[in-house]
């Protein structure tokens, strides 16, 4: 059993960032210029990631998600997945990706033990995708999505970050996908991270879930609530009339779900990041590299105990020292 954190929440899900590099540059996540990447020697190796996951399982974690940056850029990704899948106690192993490299990777990843993927697709409109995600194309992401489905990396989820003036009108077309497909299309509220131009954009282009929901319902009919069996599910889930899949909303700004947060995050450079929207971190590398007296298990226990009660976006406070691509969502 994972020890409860300081606010009696049960942490049991570890998000592991594998890299701070990415093949896209989404406007709200990653700037084009003045980027500083972690030096390669600071990135955790496959073996070190495996050791952290083993410690997490010893403490009672069962859910693991790989993220980035773009996790598919790690050349040892299939090896990492194989190592994690082989740990007794890892019940759910998923990955969040922009999907672009999945045509080649989906089958080997499935064979190595990856269960499912969330694919980031902000719009089905080719021009607006280029404006918002800056590189890549709708066709490339859809090819990755098809490869994921063909490989059995399901149930498939699609992440759309709703951004005023860029893709807020396109949510209807994305939601319509759930009429024919058993996918979950999730609309995420923009969060300001890192204090720079991405944060500025997030603040000025924020669209509340209520507006996104209204737009979808006006076009496609009333959404019917779907009960989630998981109380820590950050998504509020719905179904369109006659729909096969689900439309879901993730509303960290207008409806924070910190009270049920069950997550711990591990950055690519080996820090437990205690809350997505705060700077608090605990460096796990001393326990991994220096034969330090403190163990990974000890540090993870400390990290869980030190999780804050919730974010402070309403007070204008957010994470300053890292941007989204350096944490992983
Ligand atoms: N590159 C992968 C991807 O895009 O899915 C994984 C890393 S990305 C940081 C993880 C998720 O964060 C994305 O799917 C996107 O939905 C979300 N995201 C990125 N920046 C965001 C922001 N400023 N506010 C809300 N969600 C954001
Ligand atoms: Fe890359 Fe994902 Fe960030 Fe977009 S959201 S820039 S795909 S890490």
* Structural domain tally: 1
Note poorly predicted spans.
none
Order of helices and strands: EHEHEHEHHEHEHHEEEEEEHH
Radius of gyration: 19 Å
Oligomer: single chain
Highest-level CATH class: Alpha Beta
In the CATH classification, which architecture applies?
Alpha-Beta Barrel
Key phrases:
alpha/beta; binds iron/sulfur cluster; 329 residues; binds S-adenosylmethionine; twelve-stranded mixed β-sheet
Walk me through this protein's architecture:
- This protein is an alpha/beta fold and 329 residues long.
- The protein has a single domain, classed as Aldolase class I (TIM Barrel, Alpha-Beta Barrel).
- Helix content is 31%, strand content 17%.
- The protein has a 12-stranded mixed beta sheet with strand order 7-8-9-6-5-4-3-2-1-10-11-12.
- Helix 1 (46-59) packs parallel to helix 2 and helix 3 runs parallel beside helix 5.
- The model has no long low-confidence stretch (mean pLDDT 94).
- The structure holds S-adenosylmethionine and iron/sulfur cluster.
- Iron/sulfur cluster (SF4) is lined by residues 22, 24-26, 29-30, 68-70, 98, 120, 133, 324-325.
List the helices and strands and how they pair.
Blueprint: E1 13-17, H1 46-59, E2 63-67, H2 77-85, E3 92-97, H3 102-112, E4 116-120, H4 126-133, H5 138-151, E5 157-162, H6 171-180, E6 184-189, H7 197-204, H8 209-220, E7 224-226, E8 235-239, E9 246-250, E10 263-266, E11 271-273, E12 281-283, H9 285-289, H10 296-305
Parallel strand pairs: 1-2, 1-10, 2-3, 3-4, 4-5, 5-6, 6-9
Antiparallel strand pairs: 7-8, 8-9, 10-11, 11-12
Helix pairs in contact: 1-2, 1-10, 2-3, 3-5, 6-8
The protein binds S-adenosylmethionine (SAM) and iron/sulfur cluster.
């Amino acid at each position: 059993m994972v020890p409860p954190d300081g606010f009696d929440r049960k942490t049991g899900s570890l998000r592991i960032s594998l890299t701070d590099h990415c093949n896209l540059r989404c406007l709200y996540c990653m700037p084009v210029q003045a980027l500083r990447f972690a030096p390669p020697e600071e990135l955790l190796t496959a073996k070190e990631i495996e050791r952290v996951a083993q410690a997490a399982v010893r403490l009672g974690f069962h859910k693991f998600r790989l993220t980035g940056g773009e996790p598919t850029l790690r050349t040892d990704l299939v090896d990492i997945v194989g190592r994690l899948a082989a740990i007794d106690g890892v019940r759910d192993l998923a990955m969040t990706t922009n999907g672009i490299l999945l045509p080649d990777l989906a089958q080997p990843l499935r064979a190595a033990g990856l269960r499912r993927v969330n694919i980031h697709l902000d719009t089905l409109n080719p021009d607006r995708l280029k404006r918002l995600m800056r590189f890549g194309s709708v066709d490339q992401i859809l090819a990755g999505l098809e490869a994921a489905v063909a490989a059995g990396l399901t149930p498939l989820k699609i992440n759309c970050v709703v951004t005023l003036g860029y893709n807020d009108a396109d949510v209807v077309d994305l939601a319509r996908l759930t009429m024919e497909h058993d996918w979950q299309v999730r609309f995420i509220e923009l969060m300001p991270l890192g204090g720079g131009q991405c944060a500025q954009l997030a603040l000025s282009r924020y669209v509340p879930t209520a507006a996104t929901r209204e737009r979808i319902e006006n076009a496609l009919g009333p959404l019917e609530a779907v009960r989630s069996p998981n109380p820590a599910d950050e998504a509020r889930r719905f179904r369109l009339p006659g729909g096969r899949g689900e439309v879901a909303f993730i509303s960290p700004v207008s409806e924070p779900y910190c009270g049920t947060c069950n997550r711990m995050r591990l950055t690519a450079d080996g820090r437990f990041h205690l809350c997505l929207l705060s700077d608090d971190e605990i460096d796990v590398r001393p326990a991994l590299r220096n034969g330090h007296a403190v163990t990974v298990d000890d540090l993870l226990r400390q990290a869980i105990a030190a999780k804050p009660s919730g974010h402070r976006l309403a007070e204008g406070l957010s994470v300053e020292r890292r941007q989204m691509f350096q944490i992983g969502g």
